[in-house]
Amino acid sequence: MSVRPAILDRYYGAIEAALRDALSIETQLGEILRYHIGFADGGAPSSLGKLLRPALVLFIAEGLGGDPDAAMPAAVGLEFVHGFSLIHDDVQDRDEVRRGRPAVWTKWGVPQAINAGDLMQAIAVRQGLEAGPASAAALLAATMEMIEGQSLDLSFEERFVDTEAYLGMVDKKTGALFRCALRLGGLAAEASDEVLDRLDRLGVCIGRAFQIQDDLLGVWGDGDVLGKPTASDIRRRKKAFPVALTHARATTEDRAELERVYAGDAVGADAVEWVVGLMERLGVRGEGEAAVGRYVQEALDLVDAIPLAEDGRDDLKDLIRFLARREK
Amino acid sequence: MSVRPAILDRYYGAIEAALRDALSIETQLGEILRYHIGFADGGAPSSLGKLLRPALVLFIAEGLGGDPDAAMPAAVGLEFVHGFSLIHDDVQDRDEVRRGRPAVWTKWGVPQAINAGDLMQAIAVRQGLEAGPASAAALLAATMEMIEGQSLDLSFEERFVDTEAYLGMVDKKTGALFRCALRLGGLAAEASDEVLDRLDRLGVCIGRAFQIQDDLLGVWGDGDVLGKPTASDIRRRKKAFPVALTHARATTEDRAELERVYAGDAVGADAVEWVVGLMERLGVRGEGEAAVGRYVQEALDLVDAIPLAEDGRDDLKDLIRFLARREK
A72-115, pLDDT tens digit by residue? Predict the structure, then answer.
């Protein structure tokens, strides 16, 4: 088990207060947004999530010599971009549970869930605008990229893609908000273009390491605990990294069989076992772990090239290793 | 038949070009947004709609001495706020037709329609930001108000409201974008706070006149042409202005019957006839027309209090009368 990184705790209380403040809206949609973020019933903070992205904004802002308070509206805005995407994602995927609680659409219906997500997007950008036009523009750019990534991911339901195309989607769907977090921090500290460019590449590496690790967990779960693959992503026929790699590496015959399995309405237990077996024969798990390791290493090297104090670098490295090693 | 007001034609070509430019996105979502706005298949402009709101922005900007070109990004942004709301509205209401063509969700599915609306909202605000932070803030405020109005309107499915509560919803759902159009024009011309306040009230009056007229058409259609009520809003059990007024004016007995009719799954032909008969006995149509007339008159008086040139006032009055007299 990883130890919870210091960055996540340092700003938690301040972010929580700012989120609560931004959501003090006396309408039903306000109530829905507070529930979604985790403030319902007096606000049990356990359902608030890690608040990872806003914490990154504030950490980078402060670490590069800026004022974290000035970056707070942008940090809150970024959490709301993430939050609105989750409300709409759950509608799109008909996922009924979010962070262990009923998803918004299951409690208030699809139409109100669409409204709630729309409102949260607008509040997000309004927060960004409070931090200045450059922060608002960065939030909008990240929002647009994330939506394009979500759209690409949907289109993968209809076809197999290679790992390069898959990672291109990940850079948008997952990477855009990490890059935006780092950029918003850099903007608040008036970082040079050179530093902003390094932060951008750091965001790409974090996004890829985070997502590939998540995808590996989607097949092998927390193997050390359960002792066997959970394969939930295979049962859901999700075209994540392992299956993209498998498709690329398989023989013509196996590839045809893989396509047949994924073309069906449901994947039976035998087929799941066959797919996992194929992945293991092809060394997909090891290759995935090696990819995570490469992106983590590149990220750690980039941290050394960013003008942070020594203990700030250590904290950021802890966070990167934590994100690449999450259990499910 | 009303003559098409000059304001709608004056800026049409320039707005069309700016919309096309803002939507030159080489992804599937770009294709969806161009289709929705009316640019698909080379762009038959007949499906573009009236472009009423952006035309109002540019007209007010120019009429008050500002530069309409500088206001163009904000005008385009406002059309996109309207456009994104229509994509999501059609998903929410499961309406299959928009401007005589299949709605986005019927062609690309609900998940991509949600993405397309989300993207259009972000593009809208990015356009606003090009015109300056004040324009972006005005667009965001209007977006939030419109969404709250949409949410209120949904909640009316569960209950009857009086005309005051109904008009409060209309001020948000319909009025917010008219007020925003006038405000964006005023901001581009650096109008005084006094003028901005008058423009704001003018937007309220236009929104109410427009919506009540629309609601009357939802029951009586274009009575002069068809000779009998179309009553489409009654068949759809829409809680629009006429039924709010009917509920308020009816005897206890009729009110109970009205509630019974609207509580059912479908409204049969006999029930429709009964509701229309009740409305006519209670003078609802005449009272609705009188309300439209009052808001139109207040709007015309406000136009005289805004520092426009004489022929500009005439053009704006023509537009207001046109909006309050539309046929279906």
Answer: 999 999 999 999 999 999 999 999 999 889 999 999 999 999 99
Q: Which of B142, B172, B191 is the last residue of a domain?
A: B191
Task: Tell me how far apart the alpha carbons of residues A123 and B183 are, in angstroms, rounded to a whole number.
Answer: 20
Q: Does A150 touch chain B (CB under 8 A)?
A: yes
Instruction: Count up the domains in chain A and report the number.
Output: 2
Q: What rounded mean pLDDT belongs to chain B?
A: 93
CA distance B198 to chain A (A): 25
B residues 19-48 closer than 8 Å to A (CB): 27-29
Contacts of A100 (CB under 8 A, 6+ apart): A47
Q: Which residues have C-beta within 8 Å of that of residue B135, sequence separation ≥ 6? A: B71, B73, B74, B77, B128, B129, B184, B187, B188
φ, ψ of residue A228 in degrees (nearest 5): -150, 160
Whether residue B151 and residue A29 make contact (CB cut-off 8 A), yes or no, is yes
Chain A contacts of B28, Cβ < 8 Å?
151, 155
Let me know whether A28 and A164 are in one domain. yes
Do residue A176 and residue A33 come from a single domain? yes
Q: Which residues of chain A make contact with B105, given a CB cutoff of 8 A?
A: none
Residues B158 and B294 in one domain: no
CB-based contact, B100 to chain A, within 8 Å: no
Indicate if B53 and B111 belong to the same structural domain.
yes
pLDDT at B225 over 70: no
Q: Is the dihedral of CA A123, A128, A129, A133 positive or negative?
A: negative
List CB contacts (< 8 A) between A117 and chain B.
114, 118
User: Given an 8 Å threshold on Cβ–Cβ distance, is A151 in contact with B27?
Assistant: yes
Structure confidence by residue, pLDDT tens digits, A266-313: 889 999 999 999 999 999 999 999 999 999 999 999 999 999 999 999
**Claim to verify: residue B314 and residue B220 sit in the same structural domain:** yes
Tell me: do A43 and A129 sit in the same domain: yes
Assess whether B216 and B75 both reside in one domain.
no
Do B54 and B25 share a structural domain? yes
First to last CA, chain B: 11
> Model-level pTM?
0.95
Expressed as residue numbers, the domain containing B96 is 1-191
Q: Cβ contacts (< 8 Å) between A134 and chain B: which residues?
A: none
- Per residue in B280-297, pLDDT (tens digit) is 999 999 999 999 999 999
Q: CATH number, domain at A226?
A: 1.10.600.10
Among A138, A161, A191, the domain-final residue is: A191
In whole angstroms, give the CA distance from residue B37 to residue A120. Answer: 24
Question: Nearest CA of chain B to the CA of A197: how many Å?
Answer: 22
ipTM of the complex: 0.95
> Does the CB of A165 have a partner CB in chain B at under 8 Å?
no
